[in-house]
Protein backbone atom coordinates (compact mmCIF):
# COMPACT_ATOMS: atom_id res chain seq x y z
CA UNK A 1 0.00 0.00 0.00
CA UNK A 2 1.39 3.46 -0.84
CA UNK A 3 2.46 5.68 2.03
CA UNK A 4 -0.03 8.29 3.07
CA UNK A 5 1.50 11.69 2.32
CA UNK A 6 1.06 14.29 5.04
CA UNK A 7 -1.61 16.75 4.02
CA UNK A 8 -1.92 20.34 5.12
CA UNK A 9 -4.76 20.12 7.71
CA UNK A 10 -6.12 23.47 6.52
CA UNK A 11 -6.17 22.57 2.85
CA UNK A 12 -9.93 22.08 2.64
CA UNK A 13 -10.59 25.55 4.07
CA UNK A 14 -7.95 27.05 1.82
CA UNK A 15 -9.44 25.49 -1.30
CA UNK A 16 -13.01 26.42 -0.33
CA UNK A 17 -11.88 29.97 0.33
CA UNK A 18 -9.97 30.17 -2.96
CA UNK A 19 -12.92 28.66 -4.82
CA UNK A 20 -15.21 31.39 -3.55
CA UNK A 21 -12.80 34.33 -3.73
CA UNK A 22 -11.72 33.60 -7.29
CA UNK A 23 -15.05 32.53 -8.76
CA UNK A 24 -14.85 28.74 -8.93
CA UNK A 25 -17.68 27.71 -6.62
CA UNK A 26 -20.24 29.79 -4.72
CA UNK A 27 -22.82 28.76 -2.15
CA UNK A 28 -26.14 28.64 -3.98
CA UNK A 29 -28.71 31.36 -3.21
CA UNK A 30 -26.14 33.01 -0.98
CA UNK A 31 -27.90 36.39 -0.89
CA UNK A 32 -30.81 34.57 0.79
CA UNK A 33 -28.59 32.91 3.35
CA UNK A 34 -27.64 29.96 1.11
CA UNK A 35 -29.46 26.75 0.29
CA UNK A 36 -27.82 23.86 2.08
CA UNK A 37 -25.70 21.55 0.00
CA UNK A 38 -26.22 23.26 -3.34
CA UNK A 39 -23.48 25.13 -5.14
CA UNK A 40 -23.18 27.38 -8.14
CA UNK A 41 -20.16 27.26 -10.43
CA UNK A 42 -18.74 30.71 -11.13
CA UNK A 43 -16.83 32.03 -14.16
CA UNK A 44 -13.70 30.00 -13.45
CA UNK A 45 -15.47 26.97 -12.02
CA UNK A 46 -17.70 26.57 -15.04
CA UNK A 47 -14.62 26.47 -17.27
CA UNK A 48 -12.89 23.93 -15.08
CA UNK A 49 -15.92 21.68 -14.64
CA UNK A 50 -16.47 21.75 -18.39
CA UNK A 51 -12.79 20.82 -18.87
CA UNK A 52 -13.16 17.84 -16.51
CA UNK A 53 -16.20 16.62 -18.44
CA UNK A 54 -14.51 17.26 -21.80
CA UNK A 55 -11.40 15.37 -20.71
CA UNK A 56 -13.60 12.42 -19.73
CA UNK A 57 -15.57 12.58 -22.99
CA UNK A 58 -12.39 12.77 -25.02
CA UNK A 59 -10.91 9.68 -23.38
CA UNK A 60 -14.12 7.66 -23.12
CA UNK A 61 -15.89 8.57 -26.38
CA UNK A 62 -13.79 10.56 -28.85
CA UNK A 63 -10.68 8.37 -28.65
CA UNK A 64 -12.57 5.09 -28.94
CA UNK A 65 -14.40 3.38 -31.77
CA UNK A 66 -16.41 1.22 -29.37
CA UNK A 67 -18.20 3.86 -27.28
CA UNK A 68 -21.02 6.24 -28.25
CA UNK A 69 -22.69 8.93 -26.19
CA UNK A 70 -26.23 9.87 -25.26
CA UNK A 71 -27.95 12.61 -23.30
CA UNK A 72 -31.09 11.23 -21.68
CA UNK A 73 -33.88 13.00 -19.78
CA UNK A 74 -33.46 13.85 -16.10
CA UNK A 75 -37.16 13.33 -15.33
CA UNK A 76 -38.32 9.74 -15.41
CA UNK A 77 -41.51 7.75 -14.81
CA UNK A 78 -41.82 5.41 -11.79
CA UNK A 79 -41.68 2.35 -14.08
CA UNK A 80 -37.99 2.93 -14.80
CA UNK A 81 -37.16 3.14 -11.10
CA UNK A 82 -39.29 0.16 -10.22
CA UNK A 83 -37.37 -1.93 -12.76
CA UNK A 84 -33.95 -0.64 -11.74
CA UNK A 85 -34.64 -1.43 -8.09
CA UNK A 86 -34.29 2.19 -6.94
CA UNK A 87 -37.86 2.50 -5.63
CA UNK A 88 -37.34 -0.53 -3.46
CA UNK A 89 -33.70 -0.36 -2.41
CA UNK A 90 -32.12 3.03 -3.12
CA UNK A 91 -32.20 3.89 0.54
CA UNK A 92 -29.83 4.90 3.30
CA UNK A 93 -30.38 4.05 6.99
CA UNK A 94 -31.70 7.21 8.69
CA UNK A 95 -31.42 7.69 12.47
CA UNK A 96 -32.43 10.59 14.75
CA UNK A 97 -30.21 11.58 17.66
CA UNK A 98 -32.46 11.32 20.73
CA UNK A 99 -30.68 14.21 22.44
CA UNK A 100 -30.19 16.96 19.83
CA UNK A 101 -32.73 15.59 17.30
CA UNK A 102 -30.26 15.91 14.41
CA UNK A 103 -30.69 13.32 11.62
CA UNK A 104 -27.81 11.18 10.42
CA UNK A 105 -26.93 8.42 8.01
CA UNK A 106 -26.29 5.56 10.42
CA UNK A 107 -23.44 3.96 8.46
CA UNK A 108 -21.42 7.20 8.46
CA UNK A 109 -21.32 8.11 12.19
CA UNK A 110 -19.88 5.12 14.12
CA UNK A 111 -22.62 5.26 16.77
CA UNK A 112 -21.74 8.73 18.07
CA UNK A 113 -23.70 11.89 17.20
CA UNK A 114 -21.21 14.22 15.44
CA UNK A 115 -23.14 17.24 16.76
CA UNK A 116 -23.68 16.53 20.47
CA UNK A 117 -21.72 13.33 21.18
CA UNK A 118 -24.77 11.33 22.30
CA UNK A 119 -24.90 7.60 21.59
CA UNK A 120 -28.71 7.35 21.84
CA UNK A 121 -30.46 7.03 18.50
CA UNK A 122 -33.85 6.00 17.18
CA UNK A 123 -34.14 2.71 15.26
CA UNK A 124 -32.74 3.10 11.73
CA UNK A 125 -35.34 3.36 8.99
CA UNK A 126 -34.83 3.10 5.26
CA UNK A 127 -34.91 6.57 3.69
CA UNK A 128 -35.30 6.67 -0.10
CA UNK A 129 -32.83 9.09 -1.68
CA UNK A 130 -34.81 9.86 -4.80
CA UNK A 131 -36.40 13.27 -5.34
CA UNK A 132 -40.05 12.74 -6.14
CA UNK A 133 -41.96 15.34 -8.09
CA UNK A 134 -44.98 15.74 -10.29
CA UNK A 135 -45.10 15.99 -14.06
CA UNK A 136 -48.01 17.96 -15.53
CA UNK A 137 -50.82 19.89 -13.86
CA UNK A 138 -52.64 16.89 -12.39
CA UNK A 139 -51.84 15.54 -8.95
CA UNK A 140 -51.89 11.87 -8.06
CA UNK A 141 -50.00 8.68 -8.74
CA UNK A 142 -50.28 8.92 -12.54
CA UNK A 143 -48.36 12.19 -12.48
CA UNK A 144 -45.47 11.05 -10.29
CA UNK A 145 -41.99 11.50 -11.71
CA UNK A 146 -38.51 11.19 -10.25
CA UNK A 147 -35.33 13.14 -10.81
CA UNK A 148 -32.74 10.57 -11.81
CA UNK A 149 -30.35 9.60 -8.99
CA UNK A 150 -27.80 8.33 -11.55
CA UNK A 151 -27.39 8.69 -15.30
CA UNK A 152 -27.01 4.95 -15.88
CA UNK A 153 -30.65 4.01 -16.43
CA UNK A 154 -30.81 6.17 -19.57
CA UNK A 155 -28.23 3.86 -21.14
CA UNK A 156 -30.19 0.73 -20.28
CA UNK A 157 -33.58 2.04 -21.43
CA UNK A 158 -31.96 3.17 -24.71
CA UNK A 159 -29.94 -0.02 -25.21
CA UNK A 160 -32.08 -1.28 -28.10
CA UNK A 161 -32.34 2.21 -29.69
CA UNK A 162 -28.58 2.63 -29.68
CA UNK A 163 -27.95 -0.89 -30.91
CA UNK A 164 -30.28 -0.52 -33.89
CA UNK A 165 -29.30 3.07 -34.75
CA UNK A 166 -25.51 2.63 -34.58
CA UNK A 167 -25.08 -1.05 -35.50
CA UNK A 168 -22.60 -1.44 -32.62
CA UNK A 169 -22.09 -4.88 -31.18
CA UNK A 170 -20.69 -6.06 -27.86
CA UNK A 171 -18.17 -5.23 -26.58
CA UNK A 172 -19.36 -1.63 -26.89
CA UNK A 173 -20.33 1.15 -24.53
CA UNK A 174 -22.80 3.99 -24.06
CA UNK A 175 -21.52 7.05 -22.22
CA UNK A 176 -23.35 9.92 -20.59
CA UNK A 177 -22.44 13.04 -18.63
CA UNK A 178 -25.08 14.96 -16.74
CA UNK A 179 -26.84 15.97 -13.57
CA UNK A 180 -28.07 13.51 -10.98
CA UNK A 181 -29.98 14.16 -7.78
CA UNK A 182 -29.97 12.38 -4.44
CA UNK A 183 -31.69 13.55 -1.32
CA UNK A 184 -28.59 12.80 0.75
CA UNK A 185 -29.24 12.65 4.50
CA UNK A 186 -25.93 14.27 5.36
CA UNK A 187 -24.44 16.16 2.43
CA UNK A 188 -20.95 17.18 3.43
CA UNK A 189 -17.41 18.24 2.66
CA UNK A 190 -18.08 20.99 0.15
CA UNK A 191 -18.92 19.45 -3.26
CA UNK A 192 -17.84 15.94 -2.28
CA UNK A 193 -21.40 14.95 -1.42
CA UNK A 194 -24.22 17.22 -2.55
CA UNK A 195 -27.88 16.70 -3.38
CA UNK A 196 -27.45 17.92 -6.95
CA UNK A 197 -24.26 16.84 -8.72
CA UNK A 198 -22.86 15.77 -12.06
CA UNK A 199 -21.87 12.29 -13.09
CA UNK A 200 -19.82 10.81 -15.90
CA UNK A 201 -20.88 7.22 -16.51
CA UNK A 202 -20.13 4.50 -19.01
CA UNK A 203 -22.15 1.32 -19.42
CA UNK A 204 -19.95 -1.10 -21.33
CA UNK A 205 -21.87 -4.10 -22.72
CA UNK A 206 -19.86 -7.29 -23.17
CA UNK A 207 -20.35 -10.99 -23.88
CA UNK A 208 -20.68 -12.66 -20.44
CA UNK A 209 -17.51 -14.71 -20.97
CA UNK A 210 -15.47 -11.48 -21.37
CA UNK A 211 -16.91 -9.65 -18.36
CA UNK A 212 -14.09 -10.31 -15.95
CA UNK A 213 -11.42 -9.27 -18.42
CA UNK A 214 -13.23 -6.00 -19.21
CA UNK A 215 -13.84 -5.31 -15.52
CA UNK A 216 -10.06 -5.44 -14.93
CA UNK A 217 -9.46 -3.38 -18.07
CA UNK A 218 -11.74 -0.55 -16.93
CA UNK A 219 -10.32 -0.50 -13.41
CA UNK A 220 -6.83 0.08 -14.88
CA UNK A 221 -8.05 2.57 -17.47
CA UNK A 222 -9.94 4.67 -14.94
CA UNK A 223 -7.11 4.67 -12.42
CA UNK A 224 -4.69 5.86 -15.12
CA UNK A 225 -7.07 8.61 -16.24
CA UNK A 226 -6.74 10.51 -12.97
CA UNK A 227 -2.97 10.09 -12.96
CA UNK A 228 -2.66 11.25 -16.54
CA UNK A 229 -4.52 14.43 -15.57
CA UNK A 230 -2.10 15.19 -12.78
CA UNK A 231 -3.20 13.48 -9.57
CA UNK A 232 -0.04 12.02 -7.99
CA UNK A 233 0.02 8.23 -7.67
CA UNK A 234 0.38 8.43 -3.88
CA UNK A 235 -2.99 10.22 -3.63
CA UNK A 236 -4.83 7.42 -5.45
CA UNK A 237 -5.53 3.82 -4.58
CA UNK A 238 -7.91 1.03 -5.52
CA UNK A 239 -10.28 -0.52 -3.04
CA UNK A 240 -12.01 -3.75 -4.00
CA UNK A 241 -15.28 -4.35 -2.13
CA UNK A 242 -15.52 -7.58 -0.17
CA UNK A 243 -18.06 -10.04 -1.63
CA UNK A 244 -20.38 -9.62 1.38
CA UNK A 245 -20.49 -5.82 0.92
CA UNK A 246 -21.58 -5.93 -2.73
CA UNK A 247 -24.94 -4.57 -3.90
CA UNK A 248 -27.36 -7.35 -4.78
CA UNK A 249 -26.76 -6.95 -8.53
CA UNK A 250 -22.97 -6.61 -8.42
CA UNK A 251 -20.53 -9.37 -9.27
CA UNK A 252 -17.61 -7.18 -8.29
CA UNK A 253 -16.99 -3.53 -7.42
CA UNK A 254 -13.73 -1.63 -7.12
CA UNK A 255 -13.49 2.00 -6.10
CA UNK A 256 -10.84 4.41 -7.19
CA UNK A 257 -10.14 6.23 -3.94
CA UNK A 258 -8.53 9.63 -3.44
CA UNK A 259 -6.72 10.89 -0.38
CA UNK A 260 -9.06 13.70 0.72
CA UNK A 261 -8.13 15.89 3.72
CA UNK A 262 -10.34 13.62 5.88
CA UNK A 263 -8.72 10.41 4.57
CA UNK A 264 -9.22 7.91 1.77
CA UNK A 265 -12.68 8.09 0.20
CA UNK A 266 -14.43 7.26 -3.05
CA UNK A 267 -13.75 9.10 -6.27
CA UNK A 268 -15.26 6.63 -8.72
CA UNK A 269 -16.73 3.13 -8.65
CA UNK A 270 -16.22 0.43 -11.28
CA UNK A 271 -18.74 -2.41 -11.11
CA UNK A 272 -19.42 -5.64 -12.93
CA UNK A 273 -23.23 -5.51 -12.92
CA UNK A 274 -23.75 -8.79 -14.74
CA UNK A 275 -26.98 -8.90 -16.77
CA UNK A 276 -29.05 -7.45 -13.91
CA UNK A 277 -30.06 -4.16 -15.54
CA UNK A 278 -30.97 -5.39 -19.02
CA UNK A 279 -32.83 -8.37 -17.56
CA UNK A 280 -34.81 -6.17 -15.17
CA UNK A 281 -35.81 -3.68 -17.87
CA UNK A 282 -36.63 -6.49 -20.23
CA UNK A 283 -38.92 -8.17 -17.69
CA UNK A 284 -40.63 -4.93 -16.64
CA UNK A 285 -41.06 -3.41 -20.11
CA UNK A 286 -41.80 -6.60 -22.01
CA UNK A 287 -39.19 -5.60 -24.63
CA UNK A 288 -36.34 -7.93 -25.51
CA UNK A 289 -33.03 -6.35 -24.53
CA UNK A 290 -30.60 -8.85 -25.98
CA UNK A 291 -27.94 -9.11 -28.62
CA UNK A 292 -28.11 -11.58 -31.48
CA UNK A 293 -24.64 -12.68 -32.53
CA UNK A 294 -25.15 -13.72 -36.16
CA UNK A 295 -21.74 -15.34 -36.59
CA UNK A 296 -22.29 -17.65 -33.62
CA UNK A 297 -26.06 -17.85 -34.21
CA UNK A 298 -26.50 -17.09 -30.55
CA UNK A 299 -28.76 -14.74 -28.61
CA UNK A 300 -27.63 -13.45 -25.23
CA UNK A 301 -28.09 -10.69 -22.65
CA UNK A 302 -24.82 -8.77 -22.41
CA UNK A 303 -23.12 -8.19 -19.09
CA UNK A 304 -22.40 -4.61 -18.10
CA UNK A 305 -19.19 -3.11 -16.77
CA UNK A 306 -19.87 0.32 -15.32
CA UNK A 307 -17.23 2.93 -14.51
CA UNK A 308 -19.27 5.59 -12.63
CA UNK A 309 -17.53 8.85 -11.76
CA UNK A 310 -18.64 12.16 -10.30
CA UNK A 311 -17.66 15.22 -12.35
CA UNK A 312 -18.11 17.65 -9.48
CA UNK A 313 -16.37 15.30 -7.06
CA UNK A 314 -13.50 14.81 -9.51
CA UNK A 315 -13.15 18.58 -9.90
CA UNK A 316 -12.77 18.85 -6.14
CA UNK A 317 -10.07 16.15 -6.13
CA UNK A 318 -8.20 17.88 -8.96
CA UNK A 319 -8.32 21.16 -7.01
CA UNK A 320 -7.10 19.54 -3.79
CA UNK A 321 -4.26 17.71 -5.55
CA UNK A 322 -3.21 20.84 -7.45
CA UNK A 323 -3.13 23.26 -4.51
CA UNK A 324 0.40 24.14 -3.43
CA UNK A 325 2.16 26.88 -1.56
CA UNK A 326 5.74 27.64 -2.47
CA UNK A 327 8.15 30.53 -2.31
CA UNK A 328 8.88 32.87 -5.19
CA UNK A 329 11.18 35.89 -4.75
CA UNK A 330 11.07 35.51 -0.98
CA UNK A 331 7.25 35.55 -0.88
CA UNK A 332 4.83 32.70 -0.30
CA UNK A 333 2.54 32.16 -3.26
CA UNK A 334 -0.39 29.81 -3.64
CA UNK A 335 -0.47 28.04 -6.96
CA UNK A 336 -2.83 25.54 -8.56
CA UNK A 337 -0.63 23.12 -10.49
CA UNK A 338 -3.50 22.03 -12.70
CA UNK A 339 -2.92 20.14 -15.91
CA UNK A 340 -3.37 22.65 -18.75
CA UNK A 341 -6.38 20.66 -20.00
CA UNK A 342 -8.23 21.33 -16.73
CA UNK A 343 -7.13 24.89 -15.95
CA UNK A 344 -9.97 27.46 -16.20
CA UNK A 345 -7.71 29.62 -18.37
CA UNK A 346 -4.78 28.20 -20.29
CA UNK A 347 -3.29 31.56 -21.19
CA UNK A 348 -3.47 35.05 -19.70
CA UNK A 349 -2.57 37.97 -21.93
CA UNK A 350 -1.15 40.81 -19.84
CA UNK A 351 -0.25 44.20 -21.28
CA UNK A 352 2.47 45.67 -19.09
CA UNK A 353 0.60 48.97 -18.88
CA UNK A 354 -2.71 50.48 -19.93
CA UNK A 355 -1.05 52.55 -22.68
CA UNK A 356 -3.23 52.34 -25.82
CA UNK A 357 -0.37 51.16 -28.03
CA UNK A 358 0.23 48.17 -25.72
CA UNK A 359 -3.46 47.39 -25.44
CA UNK A 360 -3.73 47.44 -29.24
CA UNK A 361 -1.02 44.79 -29.70
CA UNK A 362 -2.39 42.81 -26.75
CA UNK A 363 -5.85 42.69 -28.33
CA UNK A 364 -4.24 41.29 -31.48
CA UNK A 365 -2.30 38.65 -29.49
CA UNK A 366 -5.49 37.72 -27.63
CA UNK A 367 -7.46 37.35 -30.86
CA UNK A 368 -4.80 35.02 -32.27
CA UNK A 369 -4.91 32.73 -29.23
CA UNK A 370 -8.63 32.67 -28.41
CA UNK A 371 -9.64 30.14 -31.09
CA UNK A 372 -7.24 27.62 -29.57
CA UNK A 373 -7.04 28.42 -25.86
CA UNK A 374 -9.35 29.71 -23.15
CA UNK A 375 -7.73 33.06 -22.43
CA UNK A 376 -7.93 35.66 -19.70
CA UNK A 377 -7.06 39.31 -20.28
CA UNK A 378 -5.98 41.45 -17.35
CA UNK A 379 -4.66 45.00 -17.27
CA UNK A 380 -5.15 45.83 -13.59
CA UNK A 381 -2.42 46.10 -10.91
CA UNK A 382 1.31 45.48 -11.13
CA UNK A 383 2.60 42.68 -13.34
CA UNK A 384 3.90 40.79 -10.27
CA UNK A 385 0.45 40.83 -8.68
CA UNK A 386 -1.15 39.72 -11.92
CA UNK A 387 1.24 36.76 -12.16
CA UNK A 388 0.27 35.75 -8.62
CA UNK A 389 -3.42 36.01 -9.45
CA UNK A 390 -2.95 33.74 -12.46
CA UNK A 391 -0.81 31.28 -10.45
CA UNK A 392 -3.52 31.07 -7.85
CA UNK A 393 -6.16 29.99 -10.39
CA UNK A 394 -3.81 27.64 -12.23
CA UNK A 395 -3.20 29.48 -15.54
CA UNK A 396 -0.22 27.63 -17.03
CA UNK A 397 1.05 30.48 -19.26
CA UNK A 398 1.15 34.25 -18.94
CA UNK A 399 1.93 36.22 -22.09
CA UNK A 400 3.21 39.70 -21.32
CA UNK A 401 3.17 42.47 -23.89
CA UNK A 402 5.70 45.21 -23.02
CA UNK A 403 7.27 48.23 -24.69
CA UNK A 404 9.96 46.08 -26.34
CA UNK A 405 7.13 44.22 -28.07
CA UNK A 406 6.50 47.33 -30.17
CA UNK A 407 10.09 47.14 -31.39
CA UNK A 408 10.78 43.41 -31.70
CA UNK A 409 7.25 41.95 -32.21
CA UNK A 410 7.98 39.53 -29.38
CA UNK A 411 6.28 38.79 -26.07
CA UNK A 412 7.37 37.20 -22.80
CA UNK A 413 5.88 33.80 -22.02
CA UNK A 414 6.01 32.92 -18.33
CA UNK A 415 5.59 29.38 -17.05
CA UNK A 416 3.38 28.98 -13.95
CA UNK A 417 5.29 26.13 -12.30
CA UNK A 418 8.90 27.14 -12.92
CA UNK A 419 8.22 30.91 -13.24
CA UNK A 420 10.83 30.94 -16.02
CA UNK A 421 10.31 33.41 -18.83
CA UNK A 422 11.16 33.13 -22.50
CA UNK A 423 10.91 35.67 -25.29
CA UNK A 424 8.85 34.47 -28.26
CA UNK A 425 7.99 36.19 -31.57
CA UNK A 426 4.27 36.93 -31.82
CA UNK A 427 4.22 35.04 -35.12
CA UNK A 428 5.63 31.94 -33.37
CA UNK A 429 3.51 32.25 -30.23
CA UNK A 430 0.70 29.91 -31.19
CA UNK A 431 3.14 27.18 -32.28
CA UNK A 432 5.17 27.72 -29.11
CA UNK A 433 2.11 27.27 -26.88
CA UNK A 434 0.82 24.32 -28.85
CA UNK A 435 4.19 22.62 -28.48
CA UNK A 436 4.31 23.43 -24.78
CA UNK A 437 0.94 21.67 -24.40
CA UNK A 438 1.93 18.72 -26.61
CA UNK A 439 -0.56 19.62 -29.30
CA UNK A 440 1.75 20.34 -32.20
P1 LIG B 1 -21.87 6.73 -1.49
O1 LIG B 1 -21.80 5.31 -1.06
O2 LIG B 1 -20.65 7.55 -1.13
O3 LIG B 1 -23.14 7.44 -1.17
P2 LIG B 1 -22.20 5.61 -4.08
O4 LIG B 1 -21.20 4.50 -3.95
O5 LIG B 1 -23.64 5.35 -3.94
O6 LIG B 1 -21.80 6.79 -3.10
P3 LIG B 1 -22.30 5.71 -6.88
O7 LIG B 1 -23.75 5.45 -6.94
O8 LIG B 1 -21.35 4.62 -7.21
O9 LIG B 1 -21.92 6.34 -5.46
O10 LIG B 1 -22.00 6.99 -7.78
C1 LIG B 1 -20.91 7.06 -8.66
C2 LIG B 1 -20.12 8.31 -8.43
O11 LIG B 1 -20.96 9.47 -8.45
C3 LIG B 1 -19.41 8.38 -7.07
O12 LIG B 1 -18.18 7.70 -7.11
C4 LIG B 1 -19.22 9.86 -6.90
O13 LIG B 1 -18.07 10.33 -7.61
C5 LIG B 1 -20.46 10.44 -7.55
N1 LIG B 1 -21.46 10.75 -6.53
C6 LIG B 1 -22.38 9.91 -5.99
N2 LIG B 1 -23.15 10.54 -5.09
C7 LIG B 1 -22.71 11.82 -5.06
C8 LIG B 1 -23.12 12.99 -4.35
N3 LIG B 1 -24.15 12.96 -3.49
N4 LIG B 1 -22.44 14.14 -4.57
C9 LIG B 1 -21.41 14.21 -5.45
N5 LIG B 1 -21.00 13.15 -6.17
C10 LIG B 1 -21.63 11.97 -5.98
Largest sheet: 7 strands, mixed
Q: What Rg do the Cα atoms give?
A: 25 Å
How is the largest sheet built, in terms of strand order?
3-10-11-17-14-13-12
State the helical fraction: 25-40%
Bound molecules: adenosine-5'-triphosphate
What's the count of strands? 24
Strand content: 25-35%
Describe the structure.
Strands 3-10-11-17-14-13-12 form a 7-stranded mixed β-sheet. Helix content is 31%, strand content 29%. With 440 residues, the chain is of the alpha+beta class. The site of adenosine-5'-triphosphate has 16 residues, from strand 11, strand 14, strand 17 and helix 9. Adenosine-5'-triphosphate binds next to strand 11, strand 14, strand 17 and helix 9.
What features would you highlight for this structure?
13 helices, 24 strands, globular, 5-stranded mixed β-sheet, single chain, 440 residues, alpha+beta, binds adenosine-5'-triphosphate, 7-stranded mixed β-sheet
Provide the fold topology:
Elements: H1 11-21, E1 25-27, E2 39-41, H2 43-62, E3 67-69, E4 75-76, H3 78-84, H4 86-89, E5 91-96, E6 103-105, E7 125-128, E8 132-134, E9 144-147, H5 152-157, H6 159-166, E10 172-181, E11 196-206, H7 211-228, E12 236-240, E13 252-260, E14 263-274, H8 276-285, E15 291-293, E16 298-300, E17 303-310, H9 311-322, E18 323-328, E19 331-336, E20 347-351, H10 356-369, E21 375-377, H11 383-393, E22 397-401, H12 403-408, E23 410-415, E24 421-425, H13 426-436
Parallel strand pairs: 3-10, 20-21, 20-22
Antiparallel strand pairs: 1-2, 4-9, 5-6, 5-7, 8-9, 10-11, 11-17, 12-13, 13-14, 14-17, 15-16, 18-19, 22-23, 23-24
Helix pairs in contact: 2-9, 3-8
Bound molecules: adenosine-5'-triphosphate.
Adenosine-5'-triphosphate binds at residues 150, 182, 184, 193-194, 197, 199, 266-269, 308-310, 312-313.
Amino acid sequence: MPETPALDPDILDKVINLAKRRGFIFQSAEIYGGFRSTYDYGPLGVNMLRNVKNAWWRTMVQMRHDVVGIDAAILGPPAVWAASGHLETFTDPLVDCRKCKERWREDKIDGVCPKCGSTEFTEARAFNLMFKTQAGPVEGEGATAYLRPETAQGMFTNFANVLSSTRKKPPFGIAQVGKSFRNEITPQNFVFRTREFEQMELEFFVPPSEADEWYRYWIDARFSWYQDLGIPAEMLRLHEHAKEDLSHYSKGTTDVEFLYPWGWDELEGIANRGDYDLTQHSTHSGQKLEYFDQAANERYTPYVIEPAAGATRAMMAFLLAAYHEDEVDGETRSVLRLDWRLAPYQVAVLPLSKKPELEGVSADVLARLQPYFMCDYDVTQSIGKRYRRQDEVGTPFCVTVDFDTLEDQSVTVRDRDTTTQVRVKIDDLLTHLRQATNQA
